Amino acid sequence: MLSQSDEGIRRHKFLEVPQLVWGLNNQKIAFVRACLTTRMLNRTPLMPSLSASLFYKEINRLQSISFDKVFKFERFNTLCEGFVQLARYSDLKNRTGVYDLRKGSGRKWTVERDLEQLKQSIINGLIDMHEVIRMVGKNPFLWHDHWPVKDYARVFECLMLVDDISKEADKVVSKIRQIGSVEKWPTMLLLCLL
Predict the structure, then answer these.
(1) Total domain count for the chain?
(2) Alpha carbon distance 22, 171 (integer Å)
């Protein structure tokens, strides 16, 4: 498996990342898990969409926002070169080559069974014939327990906010620094939201 190496990312085999949900921090964690799972499969993740709303239980109410409207797509690929690379759907050659890999769920499903199922799919060659793998299930990507913290950190370091969002975040940080003391933070956060 590729997870211990920086070589061999296949740019013609893909993993579809479904729309990421919940808050931005959880979406970032899900994205990193997807990247590391994709890396293990020696594939390239397709650029996901994020959720601009928090109604994650009501799929029809989710507002989708493209990954590259929040994070710098090209910058991500530059910073993570050789470790993981994102692709666009326009990079696909044959969209009909999708294989749905159903991930387990339920009370008896464990982290170990999750990894074992994926390893068996690789060993049996079920997924390698297809251009695109779509992992479906409640938690489609491998758990944090499967990856070293340094691998998580490496992908997180490649995520750069687009300039507009970064400028707004800088304004909030500046206001926090102006107020200074921790006791004043609730008041300051309220002011930042106004």
Answers:
(1) 2
(2) 24
Looking at the structure, tell me whether residues 38 and 61 fall in a common domain: yes
Same domain membership, residue 187 and residue 155:
no
Give the span between the Cα atoms of 79 and 77, in whole angstroms: 6
Single out the residue of 1, 9, 16, 17 nearest to residue 81, CA to CA: 9
What domain range is 56 assigned to? 2-160
List Cβ neighbours of 37 (8 Å cut-off, separation of 6 or more): 15, 118, 135, 141, 142
How much is the pTM?
0.76
Which secondary structure element, helix H or strand E, spans residue 14, and what is its range? strand 14-16
Same domain, 98 and 179: no
- Per-residue pLDDT 10s for the chain (194 aa) are 444 444 556 778 898 887 787 778 888 888 998 898 888 888 899 998 888 876 666 666 678 889 999 999 999 999 999 999 999 988 888 765 788 877 666 566 666 777 777 777 777 776 777 888 887 766 666 665 677 889 989 999 999 999 998 888 888 888 877 776 555 555 555 555 54
